[in-house]
């Protein structure tokens, strides 16, 4: 017997003259579609795209690989729409909001192609791969049949491969294995900054606030800091960081603890790499990128001085992308430091090397091309 939690939601559809239902699952928090039709290999891409745009979901009963091809065809139809690139800084904030609206609409439309899952996470379709391990890693133990979007499943499969192969971190000379829902350290410039910045004199203890995969805590431990406390409040991040620290043989130096921001006490070094863009997270999976109202950034700045040992430093690793998008000014950031009783000891900058920084077709190209990632070295006044 499956025990259904009160928060479980259900999706209903008509099939073979009967009304059917199943548990609905969406990691992004998308509500179950209100209109659902059964579809298979006979449907055309144009018809599927039209239904999805109208808000009608398609529960797939055909070949799994054909469903993947259909999703790609729907994506191509979305991409035919002209992309508006805005080059001026004054209009950058508007461009950003239009871009997010477009991405949200894209996710909603492509999320309308649905798959059934049996009670062991098996997809009962022709040529369907075994996705049970990817589902267990993301969803936890199976709890009965469900319906989820193909787009989400492909994300799970991709995350499973990242977790198996890991991400090469040159600063560590090792790989970090991100879990589903935990931000992968694919942008190496912020890791390199933490690996290169001069440590405070006599630094024996450090805090890594919002550790995620644990990559920065591992870098600090590898640099010789005897005790690193890595905090996070996301259960997935805590499990991911713990696994990575153990795999790297650093468990004797790094303590992973559940905490909202700071652990008790003080340290010679307190490091934080908060989400860089002050905007509302559209789903739980976006919380590593978007920091609504700069809550984590502000919380770190305001609480830092009280958690620094005399002569200690706080390292804030932050991109200035939000400044180029008109979402936060440098003046506001510096004023926040001053209001919290902090002084800037130094700053190190790095240019991003990811492909979007040089993609002239990206709607946010002007901002991305000008972006710098900085490590702000902060001390108490």
Automatic annotation (TrEMBL):
Keywords: Methyltransferase, S-adenosyl-L-methionine, Transferase. It comes from Sulfuritalea hydrogenivorans sk43H. It comes from the Bacteria. GO terms for molecular function: nucleic acid binding; protein-glutamine N-methyltransferase activity. This is Methyltransferase small domain-containing protein. GO terms for biological process: methylation. Residues 205-319 form the Methyltransferase small domain. InterPro entries: DNA_methylase_N6_adenine_CS, N5-glutamine_MTase, SAM-dependent_MTases_sf, Small_mtfrase_dom.
């Amino acid at each position: 017997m499956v025990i259904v939690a009160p928060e479980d939601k259900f999706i209903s559809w008509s099939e073979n003259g009967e009304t059917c239902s199943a548990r609905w699952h969406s990691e992004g928090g998308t509500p179950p579609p209100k209109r659902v039709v059964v579809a298979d290999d006979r449907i055309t891409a144009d018809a599927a795209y039209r239904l999805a745009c109208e808000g009608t979901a398609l529960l797939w009963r055909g070949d799994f690989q054909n469903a993947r091809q259909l999703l790609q065809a729907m994506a191509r139809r979305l991409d035919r729409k002209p992309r508006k690139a805005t080059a001026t800084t004054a209009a950058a904030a508007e461009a950003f909001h239009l871009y997010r609206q477009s991405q949200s609409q894209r996710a909603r439309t492509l999320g309308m192609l649905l798959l059934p899952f049996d009670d062991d996470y098996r997809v009962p379709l022709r040529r369907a791969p075994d996705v049970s391990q990817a589902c267990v890693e993301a969803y936890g133990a199976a709890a009965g049949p469900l319906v989820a979007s193909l787009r989400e499943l492909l994300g799970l499969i991709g995350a499973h491969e990242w977790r198996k192969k890991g991400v090469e971190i040159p600063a560590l000379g090792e790989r970090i294995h991100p879990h589903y829902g935990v931000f992968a350290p694919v942008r190496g410039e912020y890791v390199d900054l933490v690996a290169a910045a001069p440590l405070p004199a006599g630094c024996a203890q450090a805090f890594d606030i919002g550790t995620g995969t644990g990559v920065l805590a591992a870098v600090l431990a590898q640099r010789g800091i005897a005790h690193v406390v890595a905090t996070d409040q996301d259960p997935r991040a805590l499990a991911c960081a713990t696994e990575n620290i153990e795999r790297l043989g650093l468990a004797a130096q790094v303590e992973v603890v559940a905490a909202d921001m700071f652990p008790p006490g003080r340290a010679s070094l307190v490091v934080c790499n908060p989400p860089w863009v002050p905007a509302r997270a559209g789903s739980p999976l976006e919380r590593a990128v978007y920091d609504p109202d700069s809550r984590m950034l502000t919380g770190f700045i305001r609480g830092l001085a009280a958690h620094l040992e005399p002569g200690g430093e706080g390292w804030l690793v932050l991109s200035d992308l939000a400044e180029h998008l008109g979402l936060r000014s440098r003046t506001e950031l510096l004023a926040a430091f001053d209001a919290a009783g902090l002084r800037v000891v130094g700053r190190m900058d790095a240019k991003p090397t990811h492909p979007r920084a040089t993609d002239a077709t990206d709607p946010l190209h002007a901002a991305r091309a000008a972006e710098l990632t900085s490590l702000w070295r902060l001390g108490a006044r």
